[in-house]
Design the sequence.
């Protein structure tokens, strides 16, 4: 537990420093977009997760790896330099927590609340806007959507806003039906 709070404090310090630098340079939106892209990479790539968690790779190898990734992804200079610093300091393992802390700080600054949306297929821009408008009406604040795709849902959505979760996926409905049918038989 002490390790988790130490890691959280570390992530908050890095996120705070990055936020202040991005704000000072006027590139908050670009850095946020870069970090959202990184968050997606972490979520979708087991190889990338192994890379950032690897104690075997040297500082130089990790720094070269994130520099190549940042170049290929076309990341903003502040993000690129930040990733290099984090790799040099052997703190890539904290990257997911840093990203979350940065995005939370940005949402707070803008008076937004973030919502995690998982769908079976990627949402179109119109669908994302309609969902954000519905959530804004429900929670009374602007909503920043963080979307990801899970084909295992079959259809529908799972939406998490703060501690509330709405699971309207076809997978869950089928599981409930299966349980109900077991009860009948």
Sequence:
């Amino acid at each position: 537990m002490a390790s988790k709070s130490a890691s959280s404090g570390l992530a908050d310090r890095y996120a705070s420093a990055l936020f202040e630098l991005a704000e000072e340079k006027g590139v908050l939106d670009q850095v946020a977009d870069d970090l959202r892209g990184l968050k997606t990479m972490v979520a979708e790539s087991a190889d990338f997760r192994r890379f950032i968690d690897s104690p075997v790779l040297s500082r130089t190898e990790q720094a070269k790896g994130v520099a190549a990734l940042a170049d290929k992804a076309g990341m903003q200079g502040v993000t690129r330099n930040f990733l290099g610093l984090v790799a040099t300091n052997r703190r890539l393992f904290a990257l997911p927590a840093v990203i979350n802390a940065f995005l939370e700080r940005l949402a707070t600054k803008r008076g937004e609340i973030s919502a995690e949306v998982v769908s079976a297929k990627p949402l179109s821009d119109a669908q994302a806007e309609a969902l954000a408008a519905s959530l804004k009406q429900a929670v009374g604040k602007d909503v920043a959507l963080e979307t990801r795709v899970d084909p295992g849902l079959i259809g529908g959505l799972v939406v998490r806003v703060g501690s509330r979760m709405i699971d309207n996926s076809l997978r869950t409905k089928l599981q409930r039906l299966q349980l109900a049918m077991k009860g009948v038989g």
